[in-house]
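Chain X:
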Amino acid sequence: MKYILFFILLSSSFFCHAGATHHKTSVLSDNAEAEFEEQLIQGIDAYYQTDWNTARDIFAELKKSFPDDPRPYFFESMMPFLEYFFVEQTPELADDFLFISERAVDLSQKRLNSQPNDTTMVLMLSGLHGYRGLVAAGQNRHRVALSSGLTGFNYTRKLLSMGSDRPEARIGRGMFYYMVGSIPAGMRWATNMIGIRADIEDGFSELKQAAESESYVRNDAKMMLMYLYSKEERYEEALNYALMLTDALPDNVIFLFKKAEIYEKLNNNHYAADVYRHIIGKNNKCLHSITIKSTEKLKEIEKITSKR
């Protein structure tokens, strides 16, 4: 199991939402392409604001009109993945993600077969296989985890060889460099054997450049910086990106919930309680579990403060 997770971590370019880039599809007319992109952006906006019922409706229409485009499937699959990753790791969410993402993988592979230099498809496949490996490993589906991890690793190596400076490529590289830098010293022989050397700060540098861009994926880079700085227990830096995200996306209850958790880590329970109350007040119908968890967290904080 240790080695399965090792290869999965190498392959994972978390949340590099390559689907947000705008590549013209040869099978569509100019008008159809413009209409598709406009609707896709509307769906992505709803996705980022965790208005997932609206997002699902838009993606469903896009899939009917353009069934061969992988991007609506990609974003639809990321909803159960984010909930699984940030909120609660249930088998039901894992099944939803694995089922929807399989279609996104198939369509992305077909697109890449016809357009071998399409960086967006390489990014998408690298991320999707990495995500699938993580979820499968979490559910003890070792065969799927190993297969997805190794496949994702191959796409990540292809991505690295392209040398693109596009923001979404920087996210993929940043996550890869971070993962390589996080590998325990006793296992560095594996990365040396395949000619890869990087450290955590290399990863942060790439992610910061993506976060500072004007690209739509800048929020994905900020999300990963928030998560990874928190993982490294560098909570002040994590809070900086949490504040950026919640300022830009005030209705995203997942980012709000993470910000409240970071406040707790910094012993700022007063601010954490305010954020939990804000989440409870929103009562997001798509993510009821966050409302429940925020209510529980608020009760814990109030119990602690009442004893002082």
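Chain Y:
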Amino acid sequence: MKKTPRKTSAKKAPRKTSAETAGENVAGNYPGHADIPGEFPWTRDAWTRATADPNSLHHGLLITGAPGAAKREFAFSLCQLLLCENPGEKTAAKIPCNQCRNCKLFRAGTHPDFHMLTTELEAREGRIALAAQYCERYQDAAARERRAKPGKVIAVDQVRLLIERFSMHAHTSARKVALLMPADRLNINAANALLKLLEEPPANSFLILLSALPGKLPATVRSRCMHIPAAAPQPAAAAEWLRARLPKNDAELAPMLLEAAGGGPLDALKLHAGGFLELQAQFLRDISAMMRGAASALDVAAKFAKHDFPHFVDWLQRVCCGVIRCNAGAGETGGPAAQLGVRRGQFAPEALFNLYDRIGYYRGIAREPLNEQLAVEELTLALRRALRS
């Protein structure tokens, strides 16, 4: 008699690492060449100023600029340049050679003298998969497994480990380089610990902070860094860059994607890759059904709460701005409010402005621990109440 094979229980699939997840989610990656001014022309002036004489750079650097304007790519190329053995020249600016041992190690994600601190959320959802490879050295994998959602802060333990490792001699390069991204996600204890490194840096070391919200950094940290502002592209240049990288059939969507991304072309490219336009269309159908009385506000809020909260409140604020304009008779061409068919006087103005204030409040704390379900319900109900019967 044949033996019946024993049934084995299905094993739970292991959670993917930050590097694996980031590789799936990014719209683009580290450019694949070091000529950042060529890939992102609007960064040319900032790159030239920053790299004209790398030896004269301050040990603490703060790179700032608008979201989606290639700050991350700029920072990664600058880190590679500082580690490169034979930086070449192009016009007045230097670029990494991409041929030396240090460049090859850097691009492979294994350079021992490059250190990176970031949040679990950035490692998981950021544009650059290489960042996820480096940040694994500074993240608590066991704690990450226990959390339902990725962490949103750079913790003090990460900074303390960086201080310990920065005190050691460099391995293969003449310098040691650390990148904190986004630096405004340092919690207060981590920021205070970082001051020690900024005030007493080891020899031949660079500490690079990257932030779109530098005002959230303590003044004591900002004052100890050399500021490198990375300019955002002009709307026409951003649209041209984006159209060249979208599929031909979607090139005409560039202005709409840029509006949704707040003008950042790289964020717009990521939105397109993530199916944002389809998601926005669904959001608008749900709001339209609520306005017609065909769906309850709580049912609509339950759908909204399934999506990324910071992205949702960013989007809702843009919708609210359009609704305010259309409600006042100013009109909107092609925006979400126009797609909703908002008419003049359809909403109570005071209620709309109160809603806008609440959205702004939640945008400010969107990365902090909070009950996102209740927040989405509050905002959705406020939009429904603002509608005049």
